[in-house]
Predict the 3D structure of the following.
Amino acid sequence: MEPIGKMKVAFLCPINRGIDSSGAGAAEGKIAILAEELCKLGVEVTLMAVAGSKAPGRLIPIASRPLEQEPASNAADIVTMALCTAFSHAAGFDIIHNFMGVEALPFAGLTGVPMVSMWIREPDPAHAAIFRKFSKTSQFILEGEAPGDYTVKSAGLDDSDFFARVSVIRHGSAAETAKEYLNAYREILCRMENRRPWGHYENLVEGAGHKIKRITMAPGARLSLQKHQRRAERWTVISGRGVAAVDGKDIPLSPGETVYIPLGAAHRMANPGADPLVFAEVQLGDYFGEDDIIRLQDDYGR
């Protein structure tokens, strides 16, 4: 396997103790060894961990000292602050690997950066409820054998939904395991290729003079205010309700309704509702690359 050089992976580490490769048998030691082997493969690894953690790669401290040294009454607040600190840095990475556990799952949908979490084979009822609620916003890694039906049913997940988001890691030497993780990261990034902070899109068809996308927007999200130099567009709402802005005019759209966006017009779509907005985008022109997007305003700082 060739080094990939530029992939930037953040390890969101448990904060009970610091990360240290000398404790090879403990979870923290295994994280440090995986970080070391991934660095050898050319991955830029950053640990989001307790201050003073010792492992290859960069360190972003998310807790000043181990949680086990803190009063138990402060634990929930400390974990919450650690997660807030970690995700404030999320935009600098290609992928976030969550070793912290179910506490981090609610944060997965709040960033455009994909998060992969370790799957618990037989979660207890409390953890199962969290997995059910947030299973669609996180990718999963399962170590060992491929997941069986019990794995899915124990959390009450639809099997097709789960299997589409799980990568299996086979145990081997430290170097072999790191290569398995690297392949999993690549697979996840491939699955998430068309994810954006506002939702995601699918390329349906592209031919001479046209391209068609299916776009899904999260509730409350909106696209950047933008224009194109080499294509016009037509949007048709499939489900949900949207508001298209075209050259300063707001146009409410319900399922089946459509709006035309002339070449060069400033435009954006917004989803003001509580449900996802799905619409078809038909592009008409001679070039359809993402670099023909002139952003005039963007909620996500792009």
